[in-house]
């Protein structure tokens, strides 16, 4: 019979992981009103996946969130950030000038709101992907973490 | 500072307790040899400094410190620790004098430097007069976002944040290039396995 010493750990961690991810989204979309933003949200999402891989093993985590996905996510985030700047350029403004995004009247704040949201989304993707890639690069060198290793 | 009598004393007490805890943990980390305990204690160190940042009203910094310092760095250091031995090499007693002197000298310099700093929360300090007040005054009409930290980070200083995102991306890229893609990495062997099956 296979003995599993970590039943309690697994049972406790399983419901926590979706809540952690949900909290990351809250931190991102509520960043305009409360402390937080894309960077913190990205780190929290990465932590949720890392917690999963620490408890259930690195191989299932790599199946759930493949390393190529983490790498692409990181690049995609950086591209989104740059693209918002190019969008502002196309609309006739300066690079990263969110007021120009929707060509609105002076005093309107839609451009600023959505500009900040998109840019922070880019930061979220870049940070989450980067942190996860770095963790995979370190943890992927050992095939399995045994109990005696701690 | 505020409200009722003894508030100043309470805040001072909290500061002393938190900083005292940080000092104890710092000494413990310096004296320890087990890498696992050191990684865990540095996570605790980050968490306590995050608490202290909350006491200083720097909520955004505290949040980042808790997420990055206590969360991701601890996990990354654990991952790195698995690749090496579990205990640090003991150093000869005579060699320990040099770092001690270095720490004391740097500490003296820092204490000397703090004498010139403006008092905490001083409205006339340089940080609270020039550009800081301008941001506070102009954010509601310029950006329309209640959290001024977000407004400064993402809008006023958008180029800075773009550069920071680039730095994070470059750091991940270099780690991947140094460690990740090779034959020995787990992701490569996983990919091979699925290729054989499919």
From TrEMBL, chain A:
<dbReference type="Pfam" id="PF04039">
    <property type="entry name" value="MnhB"/>
</dbReference>
<keyword id="KW-0472">Membrane</keyword>
<comment type="similarity">
    <text>Belongs to the CPA3 antiporters (TC 2.A.63) subunit B family.</text>
</comment>
<keyword id="KW-0812">Transmembrane</keyword>
<feature type="domain" description="Na+/H+ antiporter MnhB subunit-related protein">
    <location>
        <begin position="8"/>
        <end position="132"/>
    </location>
</feature>
<keyword id="KW-1003">Cell membrane</keyword>
<feature type="transmembrane region" description="Helical">
    <location>
        <begin position="39"/>
        <end position="61"/>
    </location>
</feature>
<feature type="transmembrane region" description="Helical">
    <location>
        <begin position="7"/>
        <end position="27"/>
    </location>
</feature>
<dbReference type="InterPro" id="IPR050622">
    <property type="entry name" value="CPA3_antiporter_subunitB"/>
</dbReference>
<feature type="transmembrane region" description="Helical">
    <location>
        <begin position="73"/>
        <end position="96"/>
    </location>
</feature>
<protein>
    <submittedName>
        <fullName>Cation:proton antiporter</fullName>
    </submittedName>
</protein>
<feature type="transmembrane region" description="Helical">
    <location>
        <begin position="116"/>
        <end position="138"/>
    </location>
</feature>
<dbReference type="InterPro" id="IPR007182">
    <property type="entry name" value="MnhB"/>
</dbReference>
<keyword id="KW-1133">Transmembrane helix</keyword>
UniProtKB/TrEMBL annotation, chain B:
<dbReference type="InterPro" id="IPR046806">
    <property type="entry name" value="MrpA_C/MbhE"/>
</dbReference>
<keyword id="KW-0813">Transport</keyword>
<keyword id="KW-0812">Transmembrane</keyword>
<feature type="transmembrane region" description="Helical">
    <location>
        <begin position="165"/>
        <end position="182"/>
    </location>
</feature>
<dbReference type="InterPro" id="IPR025383">
    <property type="entry name" value="MrpA_C/MbhD"/>
</dbReference>
<dbReference type="InterPro" id="IPR050616">
    <property type="entry name" value="CPA3_Na-H_Antiporter_A"/>
</dbReference>
<feature type="transmembrane region" description="Helical">
    <location>
        <begin position="97"/>
        <end position="115"/>
    </location>
</feature>
<keyword id="KW-0472">Membrane</keyword>
<keyword id="KW-1133">Transmembrane helix</keyword>
<protein>
    <submittedName>
        <fullName>Cation:proton antiporter</fullName>
    </submittedName>
</protein>
<feature type="transmembrane region" description="Helical">
    <location>
        <begin position="66"/>
        <end position="85"/>
    </location>
</feature>
<dbReference type="Pfam" id="PF20501">
    <property type="entry name" value="MbhE"/>
</dbReference>
<feature type="transmembrane region" description="Helical">
    <location>
        <begin position="35"/>
        <end position="54"/>
    </location>
</feature>
<feature type="transmembrane region" description="Helical">
    <location>
        <begin position="6"/>
        <end position="28"/>
    </location>
</feature>
<keyword id="KW-1003">Cell membrane</keyword>
<feature type="domain" description="MrpA C-terminal/MbhE">
    <location>
        <begin position="124"/>
        <end position="179"/>
    </location>
</feature>
<feature type="domain" description="MrpA C-terminal/MbhD">
    <location>
        <begin position="21"/>
        <end position="83"/>
    </location>
</feature>
<dbReference type="Pfam" id="PF13244">
    <property type="entry name" value="MbhD"/>
</dbReference>
């Amino acid at each position: 019979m296979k003995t599993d010493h970590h039943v309690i750990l697994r049972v406790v961690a399983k419901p926590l992981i979706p809540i952690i991810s949900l909290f990351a989204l809250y931190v991102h979309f509520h960043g305009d009103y409360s402390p937080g933003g894309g960077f913190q949200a990205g780190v929290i999402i990465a932590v949720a996946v890392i917690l999963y891989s620490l408890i259930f093993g690195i191989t299932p985590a790599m199946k759930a969130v493949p390393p190529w996905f983490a790498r692409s996510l990181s690049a995609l985030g950086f591209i989104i950030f740059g693209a918002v700047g190019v969008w502002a350029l196309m609309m006739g403004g300066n690079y990263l000038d969110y007021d120009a995004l929707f060509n609105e009247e002076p005093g309107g704040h839609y451009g600023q709101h959505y500009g900040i949201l998109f840019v922070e989304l880019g930061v979220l993707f870049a940070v989450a992907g980067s942190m996860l890639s770095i963790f995979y690069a370190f943890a992927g060198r050992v095939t399995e973490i045994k109990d005696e290793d701690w | 500072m505020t409200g009722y009598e003894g508030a100043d004393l309470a805040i001072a007490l909290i500061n002393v307790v938190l900083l005292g805890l940080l000092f104890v943990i710092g000494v413990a980390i310096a004296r320890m040899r087990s890498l696992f305990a050191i990684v865990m204690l540095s996570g605790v160190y980050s968490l306590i400094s995050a608490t202290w940042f909350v006491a200083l009203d720097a909520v955004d910094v505290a949040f980042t410190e808790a997420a990055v310092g206590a969360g991701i760095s601890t996990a990354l250091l654990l991952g790195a620790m698995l690749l090496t031995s579990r205990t640090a090499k003991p150093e000869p007693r005579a060699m320990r004098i040099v770092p001690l002197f270095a720490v004391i000298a740097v500490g003296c310099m820092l204490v000397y430097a703090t004498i010139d700093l403006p008092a905490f929360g001083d409205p006339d300090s340089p940080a609270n007069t020039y550009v800081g007040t301008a941001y506070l005054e102009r954010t509601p009409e310029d950006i329309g976002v209640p959290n001024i930290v977000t407004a400064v980070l993402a809008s006023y200083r958008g180029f800075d944040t773009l550069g920071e995102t680039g730095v994070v991306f470059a750091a991940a890229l270099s780690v991947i290039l140094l460690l990740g893609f090779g034959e020995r990495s787990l992701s490569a062997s996983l990919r091979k396995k699925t290729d054989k099956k499919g």
